Amino acid sequence: MILAHDLVEAEAGDVPFFDDSGRAQKPARERAAIESIRRHLGPPLGEQFHDPWHEVARNRSAEARLASALDHLEVQIQHNLAALESWTPAVYDLVYTEMDRHCAYDPFLAGLCAAVKEQAESKMRAAGVDVEALRQRHGVDSPPADGGHLTG
How high is the pLDDT of residue 143? Predict the structure, then answer.
């Protein structure tokens, strides 16, 4: 599923979450891309990409929801690994806007999301960013007294 999803994004072009103008055309470009991939691969391989891609797009099965959650976590993990100087204001907001809603349904994913967010906040704090102001702007509670670290 993830491979099909990423292959379509490679063909159609991925749209950053903050690019509102590109978001409107994204579904049509992705549908055209999966049909092109299906046609180029031919049966049965084309179907092996087509069907899972549509399953992720519908986001109804447990596997599709997992793929979507991992896709959103991966974006933040990439930012966490990049130099903070490469972060735009929208990337600071990304820490609080995209991951949670895709991960909240599952305790493990919610914990992984918290760890990824904690890593981002640690990076920001080390660079002098006012993390508490960002949290307040997004209506996010302060971390627990134990620092929010995952245990076990």
Answer: 67
